[in-house]
From TrEMBL:
This is Integrase. Residues 1-21 form the signal peptide. It comes from Streptomyces himastatinicus ATCC 53653. One of its GO terms (molecular function) is nucleic acid binding. Residues 145-325 form the Integrase catalytic domain. The keyword Signal applies.
Length: 367
C-alpha cells in the first residue's frame, strides 16, 4: 500500500496545479458527505499508518479536520504500550476441574445415593483428589443430581431388590401338560441372591394344606440358613392360605403378596418358569406326576450346580465365587436327561506312572 501511495504521488507531480486543486476540493466534499453518514469509521493498521505519515506533512490548520488527530495518535501509542507490557490472561479463582474428576464425582453420587457433599469429598481425598465441597455441589447440580436425601428417596425397584436379595425368597406355581392332556402343578421356591431353586412338590390337585406342608419341609431343609430370609414374595393365589403365611411368620419371614395381575413383581420366579419350560419340560412328553418329579429334580440339580447365570457373573449358584478354575487339558462331558442337557467338567492331568524297577544284583546281595 505504501508503494502504491508513493507511485500516486509521483503521478501527481505531472499534473497541473488547477487539476490538483479541483481534485482536492472534490475529495474534501466527499469526505464531508461521508462524515455525515458514518460517525466512527473503522480503520485498519495500514490505514492508520498512511494517515499518520501524511498528517505530519499537513499544516496545523488542516490537521484539526483530519480523521487522525494528535489525540488519536497518542491513544494509539498508549495502546501499543499496554500491549507490550500485558500478561497472558488468566481466569479468576482456582484452575478448572478436570473431566475425569467430575465424572468420578458423578459416579460416586450415583452409586452411593446416601452420600452427601462432605462424604464424597472425604472419599475423593482418600483416592488422591482434593476437591472442595462447593465444587462437588456445583458439579452435581450441573449434572442434574439432587442432594443426598433426595437421591436416596429416588431408589428404583431394581436397586431395592438388589440390595435386599440376600434376604428374599420367591415362590410360585408352574403347570405342565402331560401326554394325556392332564395338567400337573409344580410348587417351587427360589433364593433370590443365589438363584438356587427348590422344587418342593408336584401334584394334580394342589390344596392349601399341601402347600403349607411343603413350606414346613422347606424350612426344615434350610436348617440354619432359614433365619437369614426376611421376606417371601408370592402372588395372590387362593392356595396360599393364612396357615401358609403363619409358617413363615414363625420363622421371622414376612410374606409380601404381589399386586393383582402383576407378574413382573415376581419376575425372578416367572423367569425360572420360562427357563425350565424352554430347556426341559417343553422338550419332554410327561406321562405323570412321578415322571415330572424325576425330570424336574434332575433339571434343578443341573440348574443349581452346572448352569452358568448372567446375574452371577456366569457362575452356577453352587459355585464358589472365590475359586478361579484353572484350564485343564482334559474336558469331560456328562449327559443329563438322556443327552438333552450337557455338563462339562475339567479333569486334572494324572501324575506320570513309574513302574517299580526290579532290584539290582547289589541290592539282592545286601538283602
Amino acid at each position: 500500500m505504501i508503494f502504491c501511495r508513493l507511485l500516486g504521488c509521483l503521478l501527481l507531480l505531472g499534473r497541473s496545479t488547477a487539476a490538483n486543486n479541483a481534485e482536492i476540493l472534490a475529495l474534501r466534499h466527499e469526505v464531508a458527505v461521508l462524515r455525515r453518514q458514518i460517525e466512527s469509521p473503522r480503520l485498519s493498521w495500514a490505514d492508520r499508518a498512511v494517515l499518520s505519515a501524511l498528517a505530519r506533512q499537513l499544516p496545523p490548520v488542516l490537521r484539526r479536520h483530519r480523521l487522525v488527530t494528535p489525540g488519536t495518535l497518542l491513544n494509539w501509542h498508549r495502546r501499543l504500550v499496554r500491549w507490550k507490557w500485558r500478561q497472558p490472561p488468566t481466569g479468576p479463582g482456582r484452575p478448572p476441574l478436570s473431566e475425569e474428576t467430575a465424572a468420578l464425582i458423578q459416579r460416586l453420587a450415583r452409586e452411593s445415593p446416601t452420600w452427601g457433599y462432605v462424604r464424597i469429598q472425604g472419599e475423593l481425598r482418600r483416592l488422591g483428589h482434593r476437591v472442595a465441597a462447593a465444587t462437588i455441589r456445583r458439579v452435581l447440580r450441573r449434572s442434574g443430581l439432587p442432594p443426598a436425601p433426595q437421591r436416596a428417596s429416588q431408589q428404583t425397584w431394581r436397586s431395592f431388590l438388589r440390595a435386599q436379595a440376600h434376604t428374599l425368597l420367591a415362590c410360585d406355581f408352574m403347570h405342565v401338560e402331560t401326554v394325556f392332556l392332564k395338567r400337573l402343578y409344580v410348587f417351587f421356591v427360589m433364593e433370590i441372591a443365589t438363584r438356587r431353586v427348590h422344587v418342593l412338590g408336584v401334584t394334580a390337585h394342589p390344596t392349601g394344606a399341601w402347600v403349607t406342608q411343603l413350606a414346613r419341609n422347606l424350612l426344615m431343609d434350610l436348617k440354619g440358613r432359614a433365619g437369614r430370609f426376611r421376606f417371601l414374595i408370592r402372588d395372590r393365589d387362593s392356595k396360599f392360605t393364612t396357615a401358609f403365611d403363619a409358617v413363615f411368620d414363625g420363622n421371622g419371614t414376612a410374606v409380601i403378596p404381589t399386586p393383582p395381575q402383576s407378574p413382573r413383581s415376581n419376575a425372578f420366579a416367572e423367569r425360572w418358569i420360562r427357563t425350565a419350560r424352554a430347556a426341559c419340560t417343553d422338550r419332554f412328553l410327561i406321562t405323570g406326576e412321578r415322571h415330572l418329579s424325576t425330570v424336574l429334580t434332575r433339571y434343578t440339580e443341573h440348574y443349581n450346580s452346572g448352569r452358568a447365570h448372567r446375574s452371577l457373573d456366569l457362575r452356577a449358584p453352587d459355585d464358589d465365587p472365590n475359586i478361579i478354575p484353572l484350564p485343564a487339558a482334559t474336558v469331560r462331558r456328562t449327559q443329563i436327561l438322556g443327552g438333552l442337557l450337557n455338563e462339562y467338567h475339567t479333569t486334572p492331568p494324572r501324575p506320570p506312572h513309574h513302574p517299580q524297577e526290579a532290584p539290582s544284583s547289589a541290592a539282592w546281595s545286601e538283602y
